[in-house]
Amino acid sequence: MSETNPAATAPVSADAAPHRYTAAMAAEIEARWQDFWDAEGTYAAPNPKGDLAGDPEMVARPKKFIMDMFPYPSGAGLHVGHPLGYIATDVFARFQRMTGHNVLHTLGFDAFGLPAEQYAVQTGTHPRVSTEANMENMRSQLRRLGLGHDRRRSFATIDPEYYKWTQWIFLQIFDSWYDDEAKKARPIAELVAQFEAGERAVPGGRTWSALTEAERADVLGEYRLAYASDAPVNWCPGLGTVLANEEVTADGRSERGNFPVFKSKLRQWNMRITAYADRLLDDLDQLDWPEAIKLQQRNWIGRSEGARVDFPIDGERITVFTTRPDTLFGATYMVLAPEHPLVEKFTPDAWPEGTRDAWTGGHATPAEAVAAYRAQAASKSDVERQAEAKDKTGVFIGAYATNPVNGERVPVFIADYVLMGYGTGAIMAVPAGDQRDFEFARAFELPIRCIVEPTDGRGTDPSTWEDAFASYDAKIMNSANDAVSLDGLPVVEAKERITEWLERTGAGEGTVNFRLRDWLFSRQRYWGEPFPIVYDEDGVAHPLPASMLPLELPEVEDYSPRTFDPDDADTRPETPLSRNADWVNVTLDLGDGPKKYRRETNTMPNWAGSCWYELRYLDPHNSERLVDPEIEQYWMGPREGLPHGGVDLYVGGAEHAVLHLLYARFWSKVLFDLGHVSSAEPFHKLFNQGMIQAYVYRDSRGIAVPAAEVEERDGAYYHQGEKVSRLLGKMGKSLKNAVTPDEICAEYGADTLRLYEMAMGPLDVSRPWDTRAVVGQFRLLQRLWRNVVDENTGELSVVDVAEADIDADTLRALHKAVDGVRQDLEGMRFNTAIAKVTELNNHLTKAGGPVPRSVAERLVLLVAPLAPHVAEELWRKLGHETSVVHEDFPVADPAYVVDETVTCVVQIKGKVKARLEVAPSISDDDLEKAALADEKVVAALGGAGIRKVIVRAPKLVNIVPA
User: Fold this and answer.
1) Cβ contacts of 281 within 8 Å, gap of 6 or more
2) Which residue numbers in the chain have pLDDT < 70?
3) How do strand 316-322 and strand 409-414 relate by DSSP bridges?
4) Confidence (pLDDT) at 383
5) What residues pair up with 179 in beta bridges, in sequence order?
6) DSSP per-residue codes, 798-821
């Protein structure tokens, strides 16, 4: 291959037209140019400094950082639905290069996770072996598509040099606390200094110096942004691991494997993401994200304003959060979540005298009732527990609290419709104003007191009601004591008054609550990042120094966590790492001499590596620091239009709306607070591509049959003679409807596949795959080829013509296409850009005769971002020695973009009487004169006078006769 002119080795076909653009020619052209791009480093994006520093002229250009969401290297490889976003970002990146930008576009692999571990359990193959094989296959598939990635920057999360920094970030979070006054994270050492100096009171009233190391660790654990705690978790015995809420289905089963999930209390690592709830909410306003994604994040964070209220009980208190403190006088009982830590504390040995049978669940003692109910609740998912239609269940714990506003004794229940994960895990039940409380009160014969005056005519006696009455517009009633009265007040004013009373009396305070819970960060798996934490003989956690990172995964023989009977909720995790005693038990010198330690045997969740990967793309070979500050500032720092900095464009599926995006935003803000990065947000602009769907065909048993073997006859579908059903759905191997990009590339070429996927419809809309329609884009490329190359000789068929000698229609078609394609590519409207290219190409085909060279060159430049291989080939055939990748994108001449004339409709009494061809720039006065002088208009008026003329230049004149 000649590096100066790789087009010189184009193949000669034996067809009647030996130089026709065919699949074979496409394959040869594409492979050759891919090799050329790799050899020349065509897509290398230079940094301002460091080992990836490059052309200063390129660095001086405006930058553009374009990212795809991390792919997971599946063993099944890619189907044609997977590359949709990758092709789109590639087209956009190529356009940005051609419009004068230094573009960073690369791709790595999110390679830790459960699928590789499960495969290892089944086959005995080390997860790294299978994962690396999968990555190599995907790299080959992606390369064949001609994606312009800077391959020097690629990596996988399983690379020790990558997860060294994942571990390092964990330690930064572990060694930090959130200062509510400063509204930012600060090093934990600064908090320790405050305790030592007496500037901050030590919980319990002792001095810092009087605490043991274990006691100090417990105190700091209440502040650290990464902390271990005994907390309710989703325990899945069938998988042998703990799951995040988001990994549990609506029916209380594991998303992977469909095993039962139970609530259990285990010691786990958590991230205090709740400390950032306000900032995560507020900063959404500055991001260029789809409103639907912002709404999902806002709902997930769930900010609500209200009050904290303390209900005294046995010399202590139960604290509730309520958004309606104005209804406090209507609270007639309390409910705790079954797993609430205060339940045991307030549960007496015997039932109080007069306890109703309906309250005890038929048990002899409160302890028996509580234990039985807890076991029942543990088998249900959070969704099941909160289902509106289900019967309300619960038991009395045998204790009474006191309503602070009226001194009434209110019974305390546990019930599964209250969750520990929201608020304080306790509610004051106001059955008149909440439907769930209303149903519970009816079921357990509890009082219902009307405290909001109904506006729907139902009256004020709740015993006659069929449901609760809730309103923010009604007035408060039956709500007064000796010190405060809410009667007659509207809701907003009543909330303010009762909150003032609560704060004045010490019974509560106004506060803000969030639905967001701290992030459960432990997994009982092997194939994940090891925690850089060791425990001393007293169980105190110690961070490893940076010099000991990365802490690599040890080799193990058994990759599987111990699994249990899926229905046995009383089991506990046993991790694969815990069985490797030589790795777990170590002697280390952490600065105070050699001591024995025990390693953490959980691993990080698969989300960890994708929380910061955008930073590694910037400075991928830096072994001394997370990222060089100057490099990070260059690619991601704040600037006009990006107040928090971040990636310029991030493309991926909407399914990551909450988890990945929220976790990555949290990590970015911690790193920003600690001064490690200048960008407080990871991704400034987010674009969610749609899904490529495919028809799923099922036989009479409901089993999917191979789509490729289905025949259509008379509007029905048959597989091996049996009629089958057809339904549009996902594409995938299990549904037997997957089409691989390799198949399409072999039949038509990668450029055709790229064009087809971009032409199917708007990028953010899902669309059905139709292999039969692919040929349309192949024919477009064949026509393009014929407009530049003689199919019989292989020589150029263009002619050298001065711009002034090109016919006006062709110039108008050219410049309209240039203007439209430029706007469409900038707006990521790739389907309409292709339509405009097609229109221009068809114009040149129909015009007949040789195409002017200057027109052909601009046509090739228009095509270059979309079909880069054929564009490179034609560009070289047109005599250019440089790659089309870095050529300037064409600019339209405005004189040819505007139509020479437009059609103006002239109406009389709303009916069209004439059409005039006028200049687009015509004034209202001139257009009115032209319309009134038109012969057809004069005839239609028949000498009648004119009362009014309405002109909307240049397209409408409406005449109203007298």
Assistant:
1) 297, 298, 301, 303
2) 1-16, 381-383, 386-390, 421
3) unpaired
4) 65
5) 184
6) -B---GGGS-HHHHHHHHHHHHHH
Domains of the chain (ranges; CATH) run 1-42+774-898 (1.10.730.10), 168-298+520-599 (no CATH), 303-514 (3.90.740.10), 690-749+758-769 (no CATH), 899-961 (3.10.20.590)
Residue 442: count other Cβ atoms within 10 Å of its Cβ. 15
pLDDT tens, 55-102?
Answer: 999 999 999 999 999 999 988 889 999 999 999 999 999 999 999 999
Strand-strand pairing, 519-520 and 262-271: antiparallel
Kind of pairing, strands 722-729 and 692-698?
Answer: antiparallel
Which pair of structure tokens corresponds to residue 623?
A: 């072994």
Report the b/e string of 853-863 with b at 16+ CB within 10 A. Answer: bbbbbbbbbbb
Name the amino acid, one letter, at 940.
A
**Residues 6 or more apart in contact with residue 588 via CB below 8 angstroms:** 534, 544, 548, 594, 595, 597
SS3 66: strand
DSSP category for residue 425: S
Q: How far apart are CA 858 and CA 875, in angstroms?
A: 10
Q: Is 635 helix (H, G, I), strand (E, B) or coil?
A: helix
DSSP 913: E
| Pair type for strands 409-414 and 333-336 | parallel
- Is residue 958 packed enough to be buried (19+ CB in 10 Å), middle (13-18) or exposed (0-12)? middle
CB 82 within 8 A of CB 71: yes
Would you say 750 and 33 are in contact if contact means Cβ atoms under 8 Å apart? no
> Do 111 and 166 touch, CB atoms closer than 8 A?
no
